[in-house]
Records
---
Amino acid sequence: MTGSRLPVSAYVICCDEVAWLGGCIESLSDCAEIIIVDSGSTDGTLALIEDYIGKGYPIRLFERPWPGYAAQKQFALDQCSQPWCLSLDADERLDEALREELGRLVTASAGVNAWRLDFRLSLYAYGYVPEAVRYGASVRLTRRGFAAYATDTLVHESLFVEGEFRTAPRGKILHARALPLEEQIVKEKTYANLKAKQLLRKGKSPRFFRLVFNPPLYFLKLYLAKRFFLCGWPGFIHAATGAAYAFMAEAMLYQKYRAARRPDTFDPGS
């Protein structure tokens, strides 16, 4: 760890992440503060965190029941005390280039209140995707007090920024976890269900065009536009899994919408 840390509060939410959280924490060693919010770990995650606290990492640990992704991240963000706040998931970490770049990003001129950080995915049976794969950047580094989550969002939560934001010129967030298909499909099903509930809550009705065309378009977006074809069969599987998520989200929206309006056609035992 460096003697002089950056004016950054990194914040991480977790539950049962003992296999991944250590790498995340170590990549944040230059930050002045690391906020970790745990929602009931039983796999040794809490002991791991205490071990890193004992090693001198500037961790503040909070234990809190799970209220949903956006609400938990907003709680973590609210605990940050440094001028800049950095969001990471427990299975993510900063690569060396981004760690070096971080010191420059937090010296941004007034009015630049957030930075979009690029992302590098790891695929099962492959490893990290090539640099040429364009997964996409998202807002992860924000000035304290100038960004917030919409806490009623159920899934795919994102930060809403007041003022200007830019994209970091170098470095990436590494997503270290690569799930086999049987686990990834379960995750996609969970996300699709939350997405359908979110759309229904917003008053959205089933969208025939999206039900039919969104899955193949999603596949083409990932496989061709984002260049996952460079990863061979693992890239094809990733794109196809994304298409399955797109289909499930739209199909679940249709079923939930129909069940709410035509309860006579809904079999509660199914």
---
Amino acid sequence: MSAGREELLARAALTRVLEPGEELGGRWLRRWGAVRLIRMLSAEGAAGTEAPDGAGAERLAGYRKRAVAADPERDLAQIAEAGGRFVVPGSPEWPGQLDDLGDARPVGLWLCGSPHLRIWALRSVAVVGARACTPYGAHMAQTLAAGLAERGWVVVSGAAYGIDGAAHRGALAAGGATAAVLACGVDVRYPRGHAGLIGRIGRQGLLIGELPPGSHPTPSRFVLRNRVIAALTRGTVVVEAAYRSGSLVTARRARELGRFVMGVPGPATSGLSAGVHELLRGEAELVTDAAEVVELVGGIGELAPVRRGPVLARDLLDPAARRVLEALPAGRTATAAELALAVGTGTDEVIGRLYELHSLGFVERQGDGWKLTARTDGAATETGVTRRGGR
């Protein structure tokens, strides 16, 4: 057996022994390495004098029972039969950004799907949020994910109900890339209502999990998998989240890791947006579409378009001409002398500007006076502008 194979088997076995994100196990791994650690926890190690430190006798006994029951050869064969694989730190497919988790780094990752994880992770964004989302939240998540996918970004989420599912569907509908980080084995379809969606992600994208085949989720595993979502991606977007939402855990972990944290605002009266708004008060950047997300997480030059209202014809006028136009009263005529007094310039200058405005259709001449055209006068009335001299 080669050293590489030994490492693979040892880490596959340890995913049966250690819980995801267990920092004590991470310290053991850093100190002794996977091959030596699994031997220490095996029946052979129990019979000797060497044993890991830092754990109580009862906890250590539990580890030993798990180690004895682990069958990494079977797990690797099972994942291969499902069309998947197991990747470990140091392998070509391992995403280096997961190393930012330190001792909480995954022991290894079980994958289903053909894309290369490390390459996908380099250009990925997490879209997370409430399970019991509103139609607005689902729409925003789906639209954001579709926009990111169309721009060549991988959308990462947790395959849960609500925002997660909407994000995955948006990316898939756009023909883009999406990956789901699961809190169970990648061969387990959970939640059951998303069995079809998870199957589709496995065929068209990637399913990612820390737990070996056949493992079922627990509440703590959902929280712990959030750290993988945060570390794996360039940034995390939260779309709807109450104050106690697990997606806020993902966002704050992302911030701790130096990733971009973004939030989509919602109604101030919505409890499902309260957590997002709390983030936006200082921990997150406000985003409303995919272009704004990419401007933050993307490379140089990937800028969102400039936001502005509609350009009106009067916006294109020379400042001097605009001042004369603004001085014209609504509903009546004014002479060039009156306008010159109102604007504070010479009569000849005003006359020149009036003819310029006349050629552009803003004003008309009536005898010795000048008046706004019906279109211009009406626009002023509709926008509630009170012109100098108006009644």
